[in-house]
Every structure is written in C-alpha cells, then in structure tokens.
Write a structure and sequence with these properties.
Largest sheet of chain C: 6 strands, mixed
Largest interface: A-B, 45 and 45 residues
Chains: A mainly alpha (331), B mainly alpha (296), C alpha/beta (246)
Number of strands of chain A: 0
Radius of gyration of chain C: 17 Å
Largest sheet of chain A: none
CATH architecture of chain C: 3-Layer(aba) Sandwich
Shape of chain C: globular
CATH class of chain C: Alpha Beta
Structural class of chain A: mainly alpha
Helix content of chain A: over 70%
Strand content of chain C: 15-25%
Number of domains of chain C: 1
Distance between the termini of chain C: 34 Å
Structural class of chain C: alpha/beta
Number of strands of chain C: 10
Number of domains of chain A: 1
Number of helices of chain A: 15
CATH topology of chain C: Rossmann fold
Oligomer: heterotrimer
CATH superfamily of chain C: P-loop containing nucleotide triphosphate hydrolases
C-alpha cells in the first residue's frame, strides 16, 4: 500500500475511484433536488461529452495519435441506437450495445493497420471515415431516412431523470477508468506515452496497445452518441458533420496531454458550449478553430498547463530580484 | 455531356492531375518540414475565391484576377507559416501538434469564407468560352484544355525544380536527413517558408483554373485536401511521380463512380476507396523519401 | 556458414543491409553462445548499430538469416523477439521516465514473463529495495543504463545485446557495469556488447568481432585482435592506443 502511494504521488494528479463515485452521487442528488432545468440540461450535455473527452484524452495523451473523425463513432452510436429502438423495437441498452459493436469493429479495422505508421495517416483516415459515415446517413434513405432524420426515439426521460441517468453513466465510467488506471493497464498506458520503443523492448506490442486505446475511445464516443439519440429523441445527419469532428478535436486539444483528470474539466466545458449557444452555427466552428490554434500555441499543456504556466511566471517574477534567469516551463 | 466512358475517363484524368498537383504541394511541405498540411485544400479555395472577388466585385480581367489569386495564396501561406507554424516550432512540440494546427487553420479559413461569402457556390466563366472543344477526339468543356496542360506544366516544372535548382535539391536533402542538411549549412527556416509559399501559390493557381469547372465555395477545401492527401500517400508521401499517379487513380475512380453509379454516392464511394487504400497500403504503392528515415 | 556450431543461442548468417546508396552491413556472420560475452567493435560508421537493429527486429536484412535457438527470426517484430528472449539496450538508455524503477521492471514482466533470475545482479548494483520506488527520471546516466539493463534481464532472457553500455559513464561506473555484465553472463545469458570504448570491450569479452565498413574484418580472442595489423589499420584514422582512448 505504501509503495503505491509513493509512486502515485510522483505520477501526478491521481484520483481515488471512491472519491469520484462519491462526487458523482453527490452531484446527482443535489442536481435532482436543487438544480433549475437549465442547469440540468447543461449538466446532462457536459456529462455526455465527458465520455468521448476521456477517450480522446487517452488517445492523444497516451497513444499520441490524433483522430479527426470521432464524430463517426458518435454518429454510429446515435444511429445504431435510433434504428435499433425505432425499427427493431430493441431495448435501449441493446441499441447502445449495437452501436458499441459497430464502432469497435470500425475502429479496429481502421486503427490496426494505421497505428503502425505515423499519426497523420490515422488523422486522414478517421476524417475520411467521418465523411463516409455521414454520407451514408444522408444517402441510405431506405435505412436512415436520409436528411429527414429519425424521430420518436425512446426518450431518456424528463429533464431530471435524463440528468441522473447520464451523470450516472459518466460517473460509473470514470470510476472504472480510475480503477483501471491504478493497475497494470495504467502503467502500460503511461509507459506508452513515455517511450513506445522501450515498450516494444519489454515485449509489449505498442500497436496492440494503441489500437486498444483507439477502440476504447471509439466505444466511449459511441455510448455518448447513443445517449445523444435518446436525449434528443430525434437525430439527423447534419449533427454528425465535420463541425462535430471539430468539436471533438477541440475537446482533445483543450484536454491537453497526460494530465488526465484536470484536463477533462476544460474539455467538458468546451462540450457544453453548443448547448449554451443552442446551435452548431458557423460561429461556433470558427471559435473552435481559433481555440485549437490558440491553445496549441499558447497553452501547450492544456488546462492544467495554464495553471503551471501561471505558477511558473509568478516564480520567475519573484526570482528577478536575485538576478537568476527565468526557468523555462518544464513539460 | 459527359456520358461516355471515354469522357468520364478524361474527366477523371483531368481532376486526377489536379489532385496530383495538390498532392505534390502537400509533399513539398512535408519534405521540407515534416508537416502534413491539412489546410492545403483551403489554398485552392482561396485562389478561386480571390479570383471570383476580383472578377465580380472589382471587375478585373481574368488574367489579372489569376495573378492576384496566386499572390493571395502565396501571402496567406507565408503568414500561416510564420505566425502559426513557426511560433509552434519555438517550443519544439510533438509532431501531432502541427497536424492539429493545420487542421485548425483549415477550419478557420473555411469558416471565415463561409461568413464572408455564404454557402452559395461561386462561379467563374470558362476562360476560353462556353463552347465545348474537341480534345483527343472527345467533346469536353473547353476549360479542360487549360487545366490539363497547366497541370502537366506544373508537374514538370516542379520535378525540374527539385532536381536542378539548388533550393529544390536542398529540400530533398532535408527530407532525407534534416540534421545533416543543417550541418551542411542549409537554412531549414528558409526551406520551410519557400515550401509553404510555393504550395500556397501553386494551389491557388490551380484553384483559379478549376473554378470554371467545379465552382468554388467555403467547404471545398476539406474534400480536396483529403483526396490530394490520399493521392500523396498512395504514391508515397513526398514522392512526386507517385503523387501524380495516385491523383489520377483517385480522380478516375471518382469520375467513374459519379458517372456510372450515382453522383450522390460519389463522395462516399471515393472516400471509401481512399480509406480502404489507406488501411491496406499505409505506406503507399511507391516508396517515399522521408519514410526512409522513419526507421529506428 | 562455415564452422557453424549448433550450440549457439544466436546465429547471424550472412546478413546484409543497404540504405539507398550505402551498404551499411555486408555478409556479416557470427555466433553468440550462452554464458559468453562477445564484443562487437569497429570505427564510426562500421555498421555496428545497424547490425544490432537488424538482429533485434528494427530493420529487416536484405540477405542472410538470423536464428535464435535454431529458429529463423528474420522479419519478426522487436516486441515478438523480446518475448522470445532476444533483448537489447539502446545507445541512449530508454527508461520510462514517468514510472518508478519497479514499474519499469514490471513492464518487462508483463511483456515477457516473471523470470527474475537474471536481473538480480543488476538490481543489486542499482541499490536494491532502497531505490526501487524512485522515479526513473531521477537517476543519472549510469542509473538509467542499469535500469534499462535490469529490464532487459527480466522475464524470458536468452541473449542480451547491449548498445554502447559504457558511453557516458565514468571509470567507477564502468567497473560496476563490467561486473554486472559478467554476473549476467555467469548465469548463462549470452551477451553481445557493442562499444566504441575498446578497453571496456577488451576487459570483459572473451571473443571479439571487428567490423569495418559493414564487413567483418576479424574475429578472435582479445589478444589476437589487438595484435592484428588490419584491425589497427582500420582504426588508424582515429588513432587509438592501449588505453582505449581515441
């Protein structure tokens, strides 16, 4: 136990699964009784986006791979849930399960060969995938109703019920993630983020680990998509266009690299902006584009990095009196 | 008009050559800087849009509009290289940062175009008039007779440039071994700027010539970027002959799909083809200069 | 291969590799035996690192065959080779900086099994339990090399290829490294040491292969090698003397 604490503190921000569970339950309870409907709505959306945010953070932070097409998995989850529940009369869990299966398979097929080569190949492939998937949604009208979309999807429930369910799923996911992080998988992921070649010399295939991370990130996006479908009760192809991918990319960037938990806060906030602006207007896309560039240039360590940078500049400010040179921000 | 197989093939070849040229532009930047420019398609759009504005708002003759467009492409590329790429370089970020940056640039450019010009396609009149001409015995839009030779001219010039002109040779050297190039005294910063300016100018030029055929609007960038990328990767990233070959393959597939199957599914099937290619042959059909130094 | 013995754990048989216009390695053959420390030396550009990369799966040989325990391993990936017991360290030690020493070792256990028989001397040299939970990033060069070596000796270990294990080390540290390498070999592991530091190689290797311009120039015991005029000539441009200084 002692040894775990020692290495834990050196690994950085580290969160106890129990703490997450308790926080989650607390927020759900407080929200249920005290939040006004607007807060419940925004909270639901943030909880929903916190799932793909986690996946993307793992993908970029540990596997170091960019994906520009996560909207594809989000969309596949949404349409699978929508079709399964409206056309086949499946229960919603089964519909979500279908979405997960389809997304996982697609991620595996695309990821396995492309994760052997440089990141930009995956970026292009996932972008192509996103365009293909949206094109299929638009054009396979016999299946998806085309641009008209699919309506009358079984609802998550009233505002407070939807909030509780979504937040519950998010909490459960994060608890599981924290538990896994404490164990061997967490060690492997941190090693992957450090040095892939060294990992290969330990007999672990970096491609397999990266593909697994990619598949998991696709599954998380798919689950979020399923929630989305049941939450809005109506979906159409235009929600899964390039702008949706841009949103996910922005989330990925804001989340920063490596500092898992704190970065998520920023990512989730980004996700809530569409809810607050209430439409995917071109202004939001432009904003995201600028945000991506700005964050990468000025806050390369994401949200937690901003805190680091502020502290570092304060330190160097104080040091100027002793004529010591300002330290550069350590990565 | 374009209904026979031969016409479809020619159309495919034409657009394929365009993809090839753009793929070379991507390759030029990649060879010089290791950066994959996701905003390449936007340079084409900028070229077309600038020419449209010059012709329709400022009443310029087409040739002048074209020059203005090329200048706009070059200047914009330089601004992006200096303001965005070089700023990032200062703190030595991981490679994926550049990918996201150019993606961000692409989003910003396309959305600015959307805000300024709206969603409607912007058209230019064909330079040689509306009468179809006979090209290799086929009846095709007159603009083909300009686009095809232009692309061939551009490709040949570029190949010559990289084989003979010192800065071109320097770029090839830097592609294979960046440190070695620096040690020999090659100014990699200058290379980077040159690469971006060249790619921007050439893509803008292509955009001007392409607009009479396909029209231009805020969203064409992404699709062009992806297809040009696929062409570049298919031929080996940084390999020019491969890029042209890859471009033609993709162009022909796209054209045949549009003509024979359905124009609705054209994009889906073309991108599906591209995705399958990427997945099956991630290293492309031909080797590339830079991949050689990817080895541990 | 002429004079090939069947009790070798690693057999390199006529491998070659060309990179564009450069023939980096040409028809290289040698064998590695359990418990033996073999040295691979040669002037800069001789092809030593390429040879290690070829053997450990980072490059594929154009010609020839590499056999581990009698089985052909050409083209296998580096992680597959590690699982089979063919391990290596790198010129610049690659430790997992974010992890503790213990976790570094754990990763090797995850990938190649729980054998800890061979890494004991290395861990002892590091300082054992007193240091094992320190982050790997806190160690100086010598410590990192030892961590990497300990990792390479964890799990399934038949042969370990060390790429410049003494570079960046001062004399005391080199002594420690030498005794650690001897201890590992004493336990039956086959060890290959690639080094620029000729004195280091002379001190611990029973047998030495000399490479120049990609080809094997000479092979034999340390004494023979030192007296071989062709070996001296190959190094002439670098001008080394008895003390291994260049």
């Amino acid at each position: 136990m002692e040894e775990k604490k020692a290495s834990a503190s050196r690994r950085g921000v580290h969160v106890d699964p129990l703490a997450i569970a308790v926080t989650g339950v607390a927020v759900i309870t407080i929200g249920w009784f005290f939040f006004p409907p607007y807060w419940l709505t925004v909270g639901t959306i943030m909880a929903m986006y916190s799932l793909p945010a986690l996946g993307l953070l793992l993908l970029l932070g540990y596997a170091g791979q960019p994906s520009f097409g996560h909207a594809a998995f989000f969309g596949l989850g949404a349409y699978a849930s929508a079709l399964a529940t409206t056309r086949l009369g499946w229960p919603s869990l089964a519909g979500a399960g279908l979405g997960i299966a389809v997304s996982a398979i697609a991620a595996f097929i695309v990821g396995m060969p492309l994760l052997r080569v440089r990141g930009h190949y995956l970026a292009i492939a996932t972008l192509a995938l996103a365009i293909i998937v949206q094109g299929l949604f638009e054009n396979l009208t016999w299946l998806t109703n085309g641009v008209a979309g699919i309506g009358r999807i079984p609802s998550l429930g009233d505002t407070d019920v939807a909030f509780a369910i979504t937040l519950g799923i998010a909490t459960a996911t994060y608890v599981v993630a924290a538990i896994i992080d404490h164990g061997r998988v967490g060690t492997i992921l941190r090693a992957l983020g450090d040095d892939e070649i060294a990992m290969a010399s330990c007999g672990i295939s970096p491609v397999i680990v990266k593909t697994s991370v990619f598949v998991v990130s696709a599954i998380l996006a798919s689950v979020a998509g399923s929630i989305y479908a049941h939450y809005l009760t109506y979906i159409s192809p235009e929600s899964f266009d390039v702008n949706a991918s841009v949103l996910f990319v922005t989330m990925m960037i804001i989340g920063g690299t490596g500092r898992v938990w704190a970065g998520l806060i920023g990512a989730v906030v980004i996700g809530a902006i569409p809810a607050m602006l209430s439409d995917y207007s071109s202004y939001s896309a432009l904003l995201y584009g600028i945000a991506i560039i700005a964050v990468l240039l000025f806050f390369p360590n994401g949200m937690l990095g901003i805190g680091q940078q502020i502290r570092a500049s304060l330190r160097s400010f104080r040091r100027r009196g002793t004529a010591e040179s300002a330290d550069s921000i350590s990565k | 008009m374009l209904t026979t197989i031969e016409q479809l093939l020619l159309a495919g070849l034409m657009i394929g050559l365009v993809y090839g040229v753009v793929a070379i532009c991507i390759g030029v930047i990649y060879n010089a800087t290791q950066i994959v420019n996701f905003a390449q398609g936007e340079f084409i759009m900028i070229g077309g849009v600038t020419a449209w504005v010059a012709v329709n708002w400022w009443k310029m003759p087409v040739w002048m509009a074209g020059i203005l467009a090329v200048v706009a492409g070059a200047v914009l590329a330089l601004i992006i290289e200096r303001a965005v790429i070089n700023t990032a370089r200062r703190f030595g970020p991981p490679m994926f940062t550049y990918v996201f940056l150019t993606f961000g640039v692409s989003i910003v450019l396309s959305n600015v175009a959307l805000l300024l010009f709206g969603k409607n396609p912007m058209a230019l009149d064909p330079f040689l008039g509306w009468e179809p001409i006979r090209f290799f015995g086929l009846s095709v839009p007159s603009q083909y007779a300009l686009v095809i030779p232009l692309c061939i001219l551009l490709v040949s010039s570029l190949v010559l440039f990289f084989a003979r002109v010192p800065i071109g040779k320097a770029m090839r050297a830097a592609a294979v071994n960046e440190r070695g190039a620096k040690i020999v005294g090659i100014d990699t910063a200058q290379l980077s700027m040159t690469a971006f300016v060249m790619s921007g100018a050439i893509s803008a030029l292509v955009g001007v010539f392409l607009t009479p055929i396909t029209t231009t609007h805020y969203a064409i960038g992404l699709s062009l970027t992806l297809k040009a990328f696929a062409a570049a990767i298919l031929g080996g990233l940084g390999n020019f002959r491969g890029a042209v070959l890859g471009g033609c393959v993709i162009g022909v597939v796209e054209s045949l799909t549009a003509g024979l199957i359905s124009s609705h599914f054209k994009d889906v099937i073309t991108f599906l083809f591209i995705l399958i290619l990427l997945v099956a042959l991630p290293r492309g059909l031909l080797h590339s200069l830079v991949e050689e130094r990817e080895r541990v | 291969m002429r004079g090939e013995r069947s009790d070798a754990i690693l057999t390199v048989d006529g491998i070659s590799k060309r990179f564009g216009g450069l023939q980096a390695v040409s028809e290289l053959s040698f064998q590695l035996f359990p418990g033996q420390v073999l040295g691979l030396i040669g002037p800069n550009g001789a092809g030593k690192s390429t040879a290690i990369n070829l053997i450990t799966g980072y490059e594929t040989p154009d010609t020839g065959e590499i056999r581990l325990g009698g089985k052909r391993i050409n083209g296998k990936t580096s992680h597959a080779l590690s699982q089979l017991g063919l391990r290596r360290t790198f010129q610049t030690p690659r430790v997992f900086k974010r992890l503790s020493i213990r976790d570094n070792i754990t990763l090797a256990e995850i990938g190649t099994g729980h054998g800890t028989a061979y890494n004991a001397p290395v861990l002892a040299a590091l300082g054992g339990d007193a240091v094992i939970d320190l982050p790997a990033s806190s160690l100086p060069m010598a410590g990192r090399r030892l961590v990497e070596l300990a990792r390479a000796c964890t799990g399934t270990v038949k042969a370990v290829l060390l790429d410049e294990p003494s570079t960046g080390l001062v004399d005391d540290e080199k002594s420690v490294m030498k005794s650690v390498i001897r201890a590992i070999a004493a336990k039956g592991v086959a060890v290959l040491v690639v080094a620029h530091d000729i004195q280091f190689v002379l001190d611990i290797c029973e047998r030495i292969v000399v490479l120049a311009l990609g080809s094997k120039l000479a092979e034999g015991e340390p004494g023979e090698i030192m007296r071989n005029p062709r070996v001296v000539e190959a190094y002439l441009g670098v001008g080394w003397d008895q003390h291994g200084k260049t």
